[in-house]
Design goal:
The structure holds three protein chains of three kinds.
Chain A lengths: L2 H19 L3 H21 L3 H25 L15 H25 L11 H9 L3 H28 L2
Helix pairs in contact in A: 1-2, 2-3
Chain B lengths: L3 H19 L24 E5 L4 H4 L7 H5 L5 E11 L5 E11 L8 H5 L5 E3 L15 E2 L1 H4 E3 H7 L1 H38 L9
Parallel strand pairs in B: 1-6
Antiparallel strand pairs in B: 1-4, 2-3, 3-5
Chain C lengths: L1 H5 L1 H10 L7 H35 L15 H11 L10 H17 L18 H22 L3 H32 L4 H8 L2 E2 L2 E2 L6 H17 L25 H25 L15 H22 L5 H29 L3 H21 L16
Antiparallel strand pairs in C: 1-2
Helix pairs in contact in C: 2-3, 3-10, 3-11, 4-10, 5-6, 5-10, 6-7, 7-9, 7-12, 9-10, 9-12, 10-11, 12-13
The chains are: A mainly alpha, B alpha+beta, C mainly alpha.
Amino acid sequence: MTIVFYLIAAITIAGALAAMLLKSTVHCALALTIAFAGLAVQFLELDAQFAGFAQILVYIGAVAILVVFAILLTRGSEAPKGGVFSKSWPAGLAIAAMVFAVLGWAVLSSTSVLPNETAKPTVSVLEIGNALMGRYVLPLEIIAVLLTSALIGAVIVAKHEKGSAK
Amino acid sequence: MFGEGILKGLAETARNFAGSFVSADRLTTVQYPEQRIAPIEATRDFPFLVYDGADWEAGLRCVACQICEKECPPKCIYIEKSADKKPDYTGKPQIYPARFDIDISVCMSCQICVEVCPFEAIKMDTEFELSTTDRFGGLLYDRKELAKSNEHYHKIHPTEAAEVDARLAEEKAKAEAKAKAAAEAAAAKAAATSAKPVGGEIKA
Amino acid sequence: MIKNADQIFVLLQHWVMSFFPHALQSLVGVLLSVVSIICVFPALFAISVLLERKGLGRMQNRLGPNRVGPLGILQPVADGLKSLTKEDIVPTSADAVVHFLAPVFLVVIVFMGYAVLPMGRNMTLVNLDAGLLFFFAMGASTELSVFMAGWSSRNKYSLLGAMRAVAQMISYEIPMLLASLVVVMMTGSMNLGRIVDVQNQYTWGLPHWYIFTPWGFAAFLLYATATTAESNRSPFDLPEGESELVAGYFTEYSGFKFALFFLGEYVGMLSVSGLGATLFLGGWSAPLAILNWVPSWIWFFGKVMLSICVFIWLRGTLPRLRQDQLMNFAWKFVLPLSLLNLIVAGLWRFMGEGLTRWVVCSAILLVAYVVMARVGMRKERFGPRSYRYAE
């Protein structure tokens, strides 16, 4: 828990808070990008180079763009009429607190189980590749199938729109 | 479709690039104002008044008929007639313009004044680098600035000037012949009048 | 002596570092490298802007700028002074914060990409193990700044330009990644220094550059196409098409911010040229073994400037592609070919040394190219028009 960790955590949380509290939706998307960047820097600080750069490439380079495009194409760029907070905010707060409690318990209980790592594990890209192709090949293929089905679904939805207007 | 068009295009631009260093037709830039393109003969920019001979006031061909002033579309010519007369190229006394102003900031170089002038007095010049810093009268040319000699006209439009000169010489010859015939007739008439007897004239 | 000339910048850096106490030395060393990158690449930008204007002029049968300084050499200085002193107009309805941040973001991200490029022997700023991934992560982030620029201007045309630009950039990002992936696959590492080291070997005096292999050549062409599109460069410059969209997503920018966008575009072009040189043209290695006495950084920068000249050549030759032609080209031609290239590269590895693998791989790639050109780029048959909202 060094000063660097606190700084990065502060930036990430600030970005996430801004993403919730800002009025303009595109501003929220950009603040979310800052939160993504904070996460990526967190990965890099832990020497997980592949994870950090992949986070930047995928989240900031693709997901953020996707979010922004979605906002633009669905006219969400106007400020919401009823203010930023929804009416049912107590329920939201309760659910968020429960999720936080579950995640916190999971993380804390895992750190108490694992021994203190003295040697940093070498996670090079070669090892990640070997693991993905060896031990974790089934999840990889399932994710590929999932993404392909999402792509096909998107194409079908877009084509349907064009076809039904004929 | 296989990209050979792109390759041909690349070869063409490369040829242009390399050729621009060696051959003149691959580099057609004329670096004005250090280099200038020679104007062709039919170049026209702004009008000027032609005068014959050495004295611009005496040889000015313009007779202030004001046809060009009336025909000018943007009305950039202003003429004031003179009170007295001076002889023109055939010797006949004609009025001349006391004031002949052209505002070349208004002139649109349509050449209508040249086309309608019956006296070949106004022609188009080829000078265009006329910018001046005087905003209020720098582009208003008066009679003295507009008058340029026939030699200048020959220099800028040689074939036209030769044609005009030939025509004017013909007119002059015709006028002289007519004057000579008239003089001969008058002389003959005078001789006949002086030779006739006095008595024969009186009739009852 | 030759080694000294080759390592001159490294030696200079160490000499300056020696003046500082031991604790600060690494910081000073890094600072020196960063400052030199920030100085050198904008200078190269100035040179390439001048080269572009004069080169394009000569290709178009005219002189380029030749009034400022002898042969127009000081033209970039004049341009820079002009941009600095022009009034910085921000439209009233524009989103001031995002409008300001967009060019800043672009320039910062683009300069980050230089951190992993090996510019000479021992001349990489940070020799990351996942160097290539870092470079592409930075490249992907520049799209966000393009979008920010277009959206914050609150101008329909800027937004349209930005959407087109982002669509183009994400379409061509995948072929770019796949083309580079082949190199990673054959080298076995994403470390750019290692990729150059593998290419630095010579057989009969000729180098082992990847461009001299069939899959490498195909990958190089695909990479060149994809990066031309990524940098919004002719013939893919519809987003900034001067005749269509004024200036596209940076219409509302004037003065120094415009200069920053311009700088960002050219510096991005230089950095992807640098990466292309590293991946396919052997980085800082000499083309022939006997030319090894020339310092390595001269080879690197020479290759980068050669790529810039090719970019300028392409710009002077090709007409602009329309948006739908652009996208068609990306998804129906470049992407399938890059996927096939991956397979061919794998085949190359498994076929073992010898002439057969050259013949087989080249044949597969050529046939695929011909088939894709005929099938993928076939013009769509136009049927009766259908309107989405009019019926």
